[in-house]
Structure formats: structure tokens, C-alpha cells
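Protocol step 4 of 5: obtain the predicted structure for the target chain.
Materials: sequence only (see below). No template structures provided, no constraints applied. The aim of this step is simply to have a reference model before the mutagenesis design in step 5. Sequence pasted as it appears in the construct record:
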Amino acid sequence: MFSPRTAAVTAGLLLYFQLPSVSAQIDYRNLDDDRPVVSEDAYPLERYAFELLAPYRFEADAGGTEHHTIVPEVAYGLARNAQVGLKLPVAALDEGTETDWGLAGLRVFGLYNFNTESRRLPALSLRADATFPVGSLAGDGSRFAIKAIATRSWGRMRAHLNASRGFGSEDALSIAEPLNRWSASLAVDRTFFRSSILLIGEVAVSQAVQAARTALNASLGGRWQWTPTLVLDAGVTRRLRSDTGPDIALTIGLSHAFALRGLMPAGPRQSRR
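Step 4 output (C-alpha cells):
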């Protein structure tokens, strides 16, 4: 039988180890595309949950052209293992003599997780995106893309493999986050639970349109759980080839996850993990 002292110590230890899961969510572990690296993980939003994202990205190329992009995004956990979302990027193109501001398209997307991670298989998801030429910097045509996503965990470390194929008009792509003809990326992250921090490293390749030079970029980023519902992310990208890709690209963003009780049915909620 436990003594009062043993019971008190046990309760204290239990409280200590449970505090992070009670006082904070683990949304900082959920990689969104371009937040802060290109790769995303294979897990969708929790069912009936919303997520609002407000990222900013600065990019400078070797020719002196600078891009500034703000991409407001909303995502919704439509069903168990599925989410849908909408992006409305606003961009600025600075070529030294003048700066053009404008909408850079309208993007809708959906993601479905076929299975969570098991001993033999990684978590696997399929994502579909469509962009439409809404705004002065949106390009000249609509594009579509299909992406396969795999996530595998080893303790506090995870690896993410993304591969996508784009279709549609190649006349002129959007200034902000265009859907490439094809792309692939490999990212590895590590979680620091006590500080609610995730660090990510990535290598990514892509081809914007047919016959274009292949871009090869490396990125480093991090995500920090600022409050139980707010996550800050930041990243830096540098080209690995001398003829294509950004000289430097910086991104910083804020995401807010929440649920509207009136939209949730009675019964237990589904966990994102």
C-alpha cells in the first residue's frame, strides 16, 4: 500500500509529465506545405478543426529581382483523415525600378490520409491542388497537381518524402507558389518536446515548366508552439545550383488552430495523430 509521501511524489511526477499534453497541443509537429519548408507530413487536420495561416516569404534571385509574398490560407478537417483548404496569395515583384503588387491566383486543395503509420508501412497521403488565374500576378492559365506524401517516424525523428506532378497551362505561371511541372523533396525533422520546438532540414528538386532548368534547393526551418493554439514558423532556403533557384529565401509565418463547437457533432473527437 502506498504511503502518503509516495502518493504525493507519484502525483507530482504524473502532473509534471502530463502538463505539456494538457496545457499545449502538438500542432508544431504538423508540417504544412511551405511552412516553413516545401515538404509536408502525411497527416491531415483533426476532424472538424480549422487552421488559419498567415505566412510571409521574401525571395531574391541572382538577377536582382525580389519577390514578396503573403499567402493567407484556411484549412478545414472535413472528415476523419481528410482536409480541404483555400489559399489566396498576394505578391509583389520588385525589379529595381518599380514594384508590382497584386493577387497571384486562387488555389484550392484537398488531402486524404490512407493510413496512419504502422510497423511495416509509413503514413501515406494523397493531395490534389488546383490553381486559377485570379489577379494580375496569377499567370495565364489554370493548373492542377497530384502529390504523394509519406511520413516515417523513429522516436523523435521523422522523415517525409513528397513527390508531385503538375498539369495544365505552361504559358505563364503564378508569381507566388506556382504548381510546378514536377517536384520532389526529402525532409527530416526532430522534435524537442519540452520546448515545443521542431527543427527541419530539407533538400528539394523541381521543374517549373517543360524544358526549364531543374532547381535544386536546400532549406532549414523550425516550428515553435507559442501558445496552445498558435504556432510560429521560420525558414531559410538557398539554391544548390548556380543557374537556378533563389540566392536566398526567407519565410516566417503564424498559424492558428481552433474548432467551432457548433459545427462539431456529439461524441468523442478524432485525434490528428
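Step 4 remarks: The chain is about 5% helix and 50% strand. Residues 1-24, 267-271 have pLDDT under 50 and may be disordered.
Proceed to step 5.
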